[in-house]
Amino acid sequence: MTDIYEQIIDRLVAEGGVVMLVGAPDTGKSTLAKLIMTAGLEKGLAVSYVDADIAQTTVGPPTCIGLRRLSTVADLDDLASSDDLRFVGSIDPERLRLQQVIGTASLVEAARNDSALIVIDTTGSVSGVVGQTLKYHKVELCRPDSVVALQRGAEMEPIVGLLRRFFSVQVDTVPVHPGVVASSPGERASARAEQFANALSGEQQKWRVKPTVFAPTLPTGLDLARLDGMLVGVHDRGGRCLGLGVLEYDADALRVVTAVGEGMAGLRLGSLRLDQVTHQTSGVNLREVMFGLE
Known about the structure:
The protein contains seven helices and 14 strands. By secondary structure, the protein is of the alpha/beta class. The N and C termini lie far apart (about 50 Å).
């Protein structure tokens, strides 16, 4: 097993370019990503990590795709801080697929300017129409040089076959390392709550916001109280996501609570409410919130 990993890592680092990792949850994608990046950095390569796993993030907070540029092996000890973010607004990889694909592709494109090796970590959504469609379009827009599929049994064969039929990209399959330990849903939820807490820590300020600063645009006459507790992405005038915020409605005023309010130009609505005490989330139907639609 070790030889298989060593051989593929050596080849990926020698070839450079963009490497996309795909696999179900708990297959060791993040671990393999770190091994590839370590090998690349030890070879003196400029490395970038695009973390597109919006539910179990390594770079940046959940609900976001994060980019981290690395120049030394020591940089791997601080992957949580991001150099750039794209707000998706969900922790469910089967929702908001357009935002996931475009966000991932735009960060890969940004990394191409200064990185010899780019590693993309993806979500664990790999089965059925949704999983296959999501990975198809990520490959289509990110244009990786290599795809590595981590699988137990033959679970990745439908996606592997799909990618080999429609793209000229090199696709390799490797078995899941026996040392990979699966996390329970409760453990994942606890880890995510801690990440939200970290993302919303620091000096929080409350900024009064107008209904005109949102994307998507709020419908005329919307009861702003319906936005209370909604998670938002805080953006500057360049379209860059600065971080997360939470909306509060109180005394007929709508405010955003955030530590990244300086430079704020607009707010992107997600599909989650976040409890600022427990940092647990609950999904919402944004169309229902805004228009009363099911």
